Amino acid sequence: MTSDEQVLSYPLHYDTALDPPKEWEDLRGRCPVATIELPSGDRAKMITRHEDIKALLADPRFARPTAADNAARVAPEGSGGAAATGDSAMVVPMKGEGHLRWRRLVGKYFTARRMAALRPSMTATAEHLIDEMVAEGAPADLKAALSFPLPVYVICDMLGVPADDRHRFSHWSDMMLSVTRYSQEEARAGMAEFSAYMSGHIADKRAGDTDDLIGMLIRESAGEGQGMSDAELLSTAMGLLVAGHETTANAIGKMVAMLLADRGRWERLVADPSLVRTAVEESLRYDVNLGFGLRRYLSEEAELGGEVLPAGTTVLCAMGSGNRDESVFEHAGEMDLGRSPNPHLTFGAGPHSCLGQALARTELQVALETLLRKLPTLELAVPPADLKRMEGLLVGGLQEVPVRW
Predict the structure, then answer these.
(1) 212-218 long-range CB contacts below 8 Å, 24 or more apart?
(2) Residue 201 counted as domain residue
(3) How many angstroms separate the first and last alpha carbons of the chain?
(4) Strand-strand pairing, 43-47 and 314-317
(5) Rounded Cα distance, 153 and 165, in Å
(6) Residues 81-115: pLDDT tens digits?
(7) What is d(CA 397, CA 287) in angstroms, rounded to the nearest whole number?
(8) SS3 for 304?
(9) Please, what is the Cα angle at 263 between 133 and 126, to 5 degrees?
(10) CATH no. for residue 197?
(11) What keywords does the record list, in alphabetical order (predicted)?
(12) Between the CA of residue 208 and those of 54, 109, 202, 219, 227, what are the distances in Å?
């Protein structure tokens, strides 16, 4: 099969929320650069092999499509949010020296050392949330009780915004990440509200001197030409609030669901909690429900998977498929809680790799450690095949994670 023989409808079909699409293995073997039709009706290329995905993501020439590019649209006409359509006020530079400058500024806050210092407060929050869940009684939705609120409390504290507004943040995040869940008009109205909210918050912080991330960026930007413009600061604050809770909240729920889907996995961790770190990495690799995939716009001709793609091509990286590539991961279809090394692609690669990965890892480890200690008898309250995927958003997740103990 060649990329011209078949056009695949994207997103691909999943039989269950925890099993990969059947096409992945065949595509990796016979058609690593496939032609896909997006919900918009536009066509793009999808790459499925680990080597090709890593090479593209690590190439500094290519970045996420912007409104200025004539890229394949993700969302159908009249649908989609800012991140899905590219029609947004997000002005963070996507490549070149501007992007490196932005990463240097924000990266000062997201160090592994700083994240480690947050562990005690994260653990206390996780314990409190689990205690509240237990008090309400089983069965419970772990996503609503723990995996959503924990990252929200953490990122709100880091940004210095009130966690009491978390449901508003969730609503705005869904609008920003919508492919088909909201109309473009609804999404634009939501983004206007979000922008006004965050602009007011930044203005308040300019009047004071705070130790949170926004306060740090304001201070760094005080010297002319040294920091961020007002528009970049607003875009950064909005983007971090969305990214800082939406993806990790979903990752916690999926991790626990995968571990409980095979009772032996959970029991092994209960018996040996020292495996938590490698188990978190393996859950990030094993996850087939990572969302829409990372998109790159080819501003010039490039070769991928033995095929020359012309400038102007939109390429979608199927990281979940790359993470199941047998040429890189032995027994890739099995969940090995002690797997090491584990060069998964879940956080991307190269100059655009996820800035918040140290934070996400810490939150996932804390959530798992605390659950193992406080609820060793935890189990799914429904068969794994009954778990439902979230639909219509760029991010991947489960609608609910029903548990009992």
Answers:
(1) 212/157, 212/158, 212/159, 212/160, 213/106, 213/109, 213/158, 213/159, 213/160, 213/240, 214/159, 214/160, 215/160, 216/108, 216/109, 217/105, 217/106
(2) yes
(3) 48
(4) parallel
(5) 10
(6) 877 776 444 567 777 788 788 888 888 888 888 88
(7) 10
(8) strand
(9) 30
(10) 1.10.630.10
(11) Heme, Iron, Metal-binding, Monooxygenase, Oxidoreductase
(12) 43, 19, 10, 11, 18
The rounded distance, in Å, linking the Cα atoms of 19 and 16 is 6
Residue 361 lies in a domain: yes
Evaluate whether 372 touches 276 at the Cβ level (below 8 Å). yes
Whether residue 283 contacts residue 367, with contact meaning beta carbons closer than 8 Å, is answered with no
Euclidean distance between CA atoms 38 and 79, whole angstroms: 13
Write the DSSP string, 308-339.
EE-TT-EEEE-HHHHTT-TTTSTTTTS--TT-
Bridge partners of 8, per DSSP, are: 36
The answer to whether 48 and 32 have CB atoms below 8 angstroms apart is yes
Query: Distance of alpha carbon 169 from its chain centroid, rounded?
Result: 16
Length of the chain measured in residues: 405
DSSP 43: E
pLDDT of residue 226: 63
Does residue 222 lie within any of the structural domains?
A: yes
The mean pLDDT value for 294-301 works out to: 95
Has residue 204 got a pLDDT over 80?
Answer: yes
Burial of 142 (0-12, 13-18, 19+ CB in 10 A): buried
What's the angle, vertex CA 242, arms to CA 13 and CA 191, rounded to 5?
Answer: 95
For the chain, what is the domain count? 1
Q: CA dist 21 to 18, 24, 54, 96, Å?
A: 10, 6, 21, 35
- Spell out the residues 6+ positions from residue 397 whose beta carbon is closer than 8 angstroms to its own: 143, 249, 250, 253, 254, 289, 291, 389, 390
Question: Would 261 be classed as within a structural domain?
Answer: yes
Across the strands, what pairs with 295? 316
- Enter the pTM of the model: 0.93
